[in-house]
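Q: Give me a backbone?
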Amino acid sequence: MRWRISATLALLLSASPALADDVAGKLSAYEAEAKSLGMNLPMPSGLVGQPKSLTDAEVAFSLGDYDTAASALFELANRPGPDRETATYYLGETLYQKGDRGAAHGYFTAIAQIPSSKYYASSLVRLIEIAIAQQDIQSGNDALTKLAAVGQAAQLAYVRGKLAFAQLQYDDAITSFANVPKGSDYEMQALYYTGAALVAKKDLAKATDTFTDLISRKPRSAVDRRVLELGQLALGRLYYEREEPSKSIDAYLLIDRHSDLFPDALYEVAWVYVKSKQFDKALRALELLEQSDPGSSRTPTTRILEGNLRIRKAQAIRLAQITGTSLTNDTQDPGIEYDKATKIFNETHDQYYPSYQAISQVVDGNMDAAAFVDQLAGRQTHTVSTAPPIPDAAAQWLRDEPAVQRIVDIETDLGEIANNIKRTEETIARLQAVLATGDRMNVYPAIAARRHRIAAIEAGLVGIRNDLADRQLQLVNSSGDLAQLTASRKQLAQQYTQLGDPEQLYTQRVQETRRGYDAIETTATEIEGALDSSQAMAVAMRTYVMQNTPAMDSTLRGATTEGLDAAAKEAQQIEDELAQIRREAMLGKDLAGIGDAQIANARGLRTQLLRAQDAEQRALSGFAAASRDRGQSQSLGKLADRAAQLVAVLDATDAQLDQIVGQSLGEVKADLAQQQTILDDSKKQLAEYEQEAHSIGTDVLAQSFKDVKAKLYDVIVRTDVGVVDVSWSQKEDDDDDLKRLNLARSRELKQLKDEFKDVLDETTPAPKAPRKSDLPPVTEEGASPDSQNAPANDRVAPSNGTTPSGGQPNVKPDQTPAAAKKKGGGK
């Protein structure tokens, strides 16, 4: 027996150095990681949404992301602090750039009440520009008076000129713009307005010189580049008015193709080419315009113009073929151009006729304009709609109407507010559901990640400490309390070991739960796809009914419409249910792993095991003096103490994180209650604004439908006229060809008769002598009654090579047929 104990001790002693090094390495790695986990603890306020910084708002503003900038600036402008004044000014500037001058006016006015503000003068300039846009000249003059006291010379001269220009005082405006110093930020803008004032005064020569000077300057900012492009466009128009097409074309083509003014330049340069009768170049410009701006409301006009140009080109080709000249290519066929023109007119007619029919039904009272407000604003909450769809062309034309565009902008803003309120409501509901579970481990993902790692390290330390304790027990004689503590520790360790890896199993359960919700999401998406197909079929059927209303039986039309409406309502109910399922699935994914009983039990058991290990280690420390290898026991004890200290550090960090979570949850609960009150008030205000906007939008749309109907009618008529023009031009060509053929035939016959007159005369038999019965009665004077008035017979008789008796030959050999005809008096 002793030799076995001695062998075991020898084996243990031989393995101890390697074991100690391995454990020490693991403990060192854990200690470094524990130190890292205890530093820079994440604060929950930073996770649920930090207050927006002014720098972030300014960056968003400089990038043109005005929605993001406005959201951040609104919070800063309504919160006391050093950034409030700057945020107020930039919020007004953001809204101004978005086109919401009414809302921007309030923020600029607030800054204009602070003469000491560094944004005071800039705010006054914006107030003057808003007054000009709103035709509020008095307010503009008031702001100008304040600006005169503090404003810079360039600012003052520029806005004074703009205000005079708005009042049609062009001479005063030119004088003010001339006072803008060279090199200032307003130099190029002032020069552009000077040219515009000269155009208004009909002084086209000076205006041309002014715009020529403008485009020769180098831009220093994005505003200057924009003014430069506008100057190039204005110069092209001036040269067009002055009958200088080549210079006009050069000015238009200076505009960069990436500019939003490029479609305008293409459209206008096409007309310059038309005026110069350069039809091929005009067609190329129109084709490029259709490719660069296919959704423009100018599209039907350009298409009709292209069709007419095809007709003119066909006529030019035909004329070149007739006259023997060549414009482009001798192989061109006028018929091809006529076919292209007919195709263009027919396609344009087919494209816009459904829109005309749809608009006509609204104007004629068959449909309510209110049903189309949400469609135009893009605020439809359901995929399947009960209202008939507006064709894209009609919708685009309606949106281009200034009044409708304003309604669309308002509805769009209301839609964004409604979406924000909806997301806020859903977020509050999710947070309240999470708080209701009472779980403090997984509420904040960043904190939860650290706590999970702490738990994983402690699980690893449990194994290390068990191994160290077992090796220490082999070096001492366990008895009394130590034996009891060891038994308790081993029992807890066995229970903990049976659980496997609690953290890994917990992660697997969370992933499996979320996969289940993902499957639900996939099914919901498939259902939505089916609804999309149903909506496409419904749109097709409604379009068919709309286009065939006059010819369709009223009973069938009514039954079809009722069936579509019933199907749409049912589909909307399904969509609402799907939305609710999605919300519940999202909440389920949020709650996955929160309040997990198994992981809670595992963590509780691990805590008990760690406490048991602490108690056993304290007892083992007292037995070290009686160890069979005192040095080895002390070494193992030091490693166990390091592990225990590491557990204490991790527990302290975990407790600190738990305290942060608890404090934050208290703040969140109070904030949620306050936000819920604000949310309820916001929903009420939104409902009031939506009702008012919808009412106004319905009235505006009713009038705009009439205007758009007239425009569409004009397009339809012009396309029909274009088809008639093609047919008429082809008829004129055919008639002209027939006339030319007849004329050529007559000319050739006459030429043949002239050339072969001698032959014809020689082969023509002489007339027979009349019978007595055919002669008229003889009067007393011996002559017929008409003999005195009858003309002499001037026909040249055939000579057959002989000379008539008593005279010369009728035709001499050297006489031409024409000379003989003149001499003989023949026809």
Q: What stands out?
A: The chain is about 75% helix and 0% strand. The radius of gyration is 49 Å. The first helix runs from residue 2 to 37. The CA atoms of residues 499 and 602 lie 7 Å apart.
